[in-house]
Amino acid sequence: MKKARIIYNPTSGREVFRRELATVLERFEVAGYETSAHATTSEGDAVNAAKIAVERQFDLVVAAGGDGTINEVINGLAEQEYRPKLGIIPTGTTNDFARALCIPRDIKKAVDIILDGQSMLLDIGRVNDHYFMNIAGGGKLTELTYEVPSKLKTMLGHMAYYMKGIEMLPSLKPTRARIEYDGTVIDEDIMLFLVSNTNSVGGFEKLAPDARANDGYFDLIIIKNANLAEFVRIASLALRGAHLEDKHIIYAQAKQVNVTTDEKMQLNIDGEFGGLLPGTFTNLQQHIEFFVPDKFVEKERSAAEMEEDPLSR
Ligand SMILES: Nc1ncnc2c1ncn2[C@@H]1O[C@H](COP(=O)(O)OP(=O)(O)OP(=O)(O)O)[C@@H](O)[C@H]1O
């Protein structure tokens, strides 16, 4: 009999998953999985829980939580030789990765997607010794993801980030950075840089329009030195995906990116503090197999077609 392990964060989002747990377990059992659950107890616990699932040769791991929980599960799986398939039940306050995979927040529908069984091998990023599935980056503004209190996020969603971002704008200063990617070197004053694996980042659905989840490439976005007015304009362009032509933006696709800075710069990994730069970002192509809905498969297919024939955009 196949074995499934559900790793869930009981404190995630509005804390609704626990109430649904019995129903979810039952559905997996009916579908033919011997299923058990692990409630995470603290930061880092989901990393260990995922490693244990590997040791015990589970066929399927389900991560129920927000981006933080999924990131931890991926960090537990990424270095293992045997990596079980991964299902996602988005129950967090931030679910950027689930959104990128078109997985709905409704628990029943998210379980349907896993049990339907359609899966796809997707790219994972590594920077230094951390793994990420969505995005990593640096620059003062990226720090807002952990400056916004969790309660405010629950209440306001992405609006909480925009508000905090506006509050931080006047204090943003450029940093000298040397960014090397696939043979190109950039030595510039920058406001921030982002290394993105998907195209859904903090409510900016079109921030990295060419990011495909299994092509082995990151989308690298660098915002060069800009004044306050220019920065606001770039942000508003970015909301509708019209920022890439702006002269302050460098946009490239890369398999590996190396960043060093003169001043201290924090690294943000999937929305959490991830140590200090320098950093080497490596794309691990098609490294983990995720359950995904038809909608995502179609989205990826049309992105691939667009890449072959850019005039159809
Ligand atoms: N039992 C627990 N108590 C407190 N924190 C926990 C517990 N289990 C896991 N965590 C931590 O909670 C963090 C955030 O979890 P997650 O992303 O699933 O939820 P979220 O509601 O989206 O979080 P956030 O409020 O940060 O947006 C995880 O990175 C993990 O380190």
TrEMBL record:
SMART domains: DAGKc. One of its GO terms (molecular function) is kinase activity. InterPro entries: ATP-NAD_kinase_N, Diacylglycerol/lipid_kinase, Diacylglycerol_kinase_cat_dom, Lipid_Phosphate_FormReg, NAD/diacylglycerol_kinase_sf, YegS/DAGK_C. Residues 1-131 form the DAGKc domain. Its cofactor is Mg(2+). Keywords: ATP-binding, Kinase, Lipid biosynthesis, Lipid metabolism, Magnesium, Metal-binding, Nucleotide-binding, Phospholipid biosynthesis, Phospholipid metabolism, Transferase. SUPFAM superfamilies: NAD kinase/diacylglycerol kinase-like (SSF111331). Pfam families: DAGK_cat, YegS_C. Belongs to the diacylglycerol/lipid kinase family. This is Diacylglycerol kinase.
